[in-house]
Write a structure and sequence with these properties.
Rossmann fold, six-stranded parallel sheet, five-stranded parallel sheet, 12 helices, 11 strands, 36% helix, 14% strand
C-alpha cells in the first residue's frame, strides 16, 4: 500500500487523491488515505467520500508507523524537518508546483505529504480519475436544471473565488484575487473561439459577481445549487472554462473533456517569484 496525507479544501484533496491514485495504479497496490488533519479543523472538512474513489482510510497505527501521527514526538520531528531522515519512506513536497523526482522511484510503503499540484503526476490516468471523481449521489434538483441548460448551449463556466481570499488577511496576502481585467481578457478570448457563448458564473460570493460582472452578455449566475459537488459537476460539463486562481475551479476545468478551451490566470500567487505555469496542462490558455 501507499498512504497519502489529505489536507485542505476540496480542490487540494482532489490533487492529493489524484497523485495517490496514479501511483496505486502504476504500482498495482492499495491506496490508503490519512485524514487525521480533519478532526482538528473547523473550517475544512473531508469531502472525497462524496465521490467514487478507490481508497480506504488509514488506521491510527498505520499513520503512526509512517511517522505522521499527531503525537508530540511526530509533530516535533516534522517541525524540525527530520521526518524524511528518520522515516525513509516518508516523501515530503517542499515547493509548490515543482515536480518531486522521488515520486518516480516511489515504492509500496511510501507515505506522501504535500499538495502535489502538478498534473504531470497523474495526467496519464485521466480516464480512471474521471470515473473515480464522479459523485456518489445524484446532483441536486436545481443543479439538474442548470445541467440541462449547460448541455443545450455553448456553455462557458466562469469561476470567481473570493471568500477567505478576501476576508482572511494572510490568505489574501498569499493568493490575492483575479482582477476584472483578467476576466475581461478571458471572456474576449473565449468569444474568439466560440460563436455566441453563454456564460455560467460560479462563485462563493455570487452577489459580488452580480454587482461587478454585469458587463458580460449572455450571462447566467448559478445561485441556487446545493453544494460544491453540484458546482464541480456543472463546471466540468461546460464546453469551456474560465478559472480563478483556485484549485476548485482548476478541477472543474481539468475534468472537462473539452481540451484546449480552458483559460487560467498567469498569477496563482500574489508573489511573482512563487508563480509557476507547471500547474497548468499544456493546452490551457494562460492570461
Amino acid at each position: 500500500m501507499i498512504i497519502v496525507k489529505i489536507t485542505g479544501g476540496l480542490g487540494n484533496q482532489l490533487f492529493q487523491y489524484a497523485l495517490g491514485r496514479a501511483l496505486s495504479l502504476k504500482l498495482g497496490c492499495e491506496l490508503v488515505l490519512d485524514i487525521s488533519f480533519y478532526p482538528l479543523q473547523t473550517l475544512r472538512k473531508y469531502e472525497l467520500d462524496k465521490f467514487n474513489i478507490k481508497a480506504r482510510l488509514a488506521t491510527t497505527t498505520e499513520i503512526k508507523k509512517a511517522g505522521a501521527g499527531n503525537n508530540f514526538t511526530a509533530k516535533l520531528v516534522r517541525k524540525l524537518g527530520l521526518t524524511s531522515l528518520l522515516y525513509q519512506n516518508y516523501i515530503k513536497e517542499l515547493e509548490s508546483f515543482s515536480y518531486v523526482n522521488d515520486i518516480d522511484d516511489c515504492k509500496e510503503g511510501c507515505y506522501l505529504d504535500g499538495y502535489w499540484q502538478n498534473p504531470k503526476y497523474f495526467e496519464a490516468f485521466k480516464k480512471e480519475l474521471c470515473e473515480d471523481l464522479s459523485p456518489v449521489a445524484p446532483i441536486s434538483a436545481p443543479a439538474a436544471k442548470w445541467l440541462d441548460k449547460i448541455k443545450s448551449t455553448e456553455s462557458v463556466s466562469l469561476h470567481v473565488r473570493r471568500g477567505d481570499y478576501v476576508k482572511n488577511a494572510y490568505t489574501n496576502s498569499v493568493h490575492g484575487i483575479c482582477s476584472l481585467e483578467y476576466y475581461r481578457n478571458a471572456i474576449e478570448h473565449i468569444q474568439q473561439q466560440i460563436d455566441t457563448p453563454i456564460f455560467y458564473i460560479f462563485s462563493d460570493d455570487i452577489q459580488w459577481c452580480k454587482d461587478n460582472l454585469n458587463f458580460i452578455s449572455n450571462v447566467n449566475f448559478v445561485d441556487d445549487t446545493c453544494s460544491v459537488i453540484d458546482d464541480l459537476a456543472l463546471m466540468q460539463k461546460c464546453k469551456a472554462n474560465i478559472i480563478a486562481n483556485s484549485t476548485f475551479s482548476w478541477w472543474g476545468a481539468w475534468l472537462n473533456s473539452s481540451q484546449g478551451l480552458q483559460v487560467a490566470p498567469l498569477n496563482w500567487f500574489s508573489f511573482s517569484d512563487r508563480n509557476s505555469q507547471d500547474i497548468y496542462p499544456k493546452l490551457w490558455r494562460i492570461l
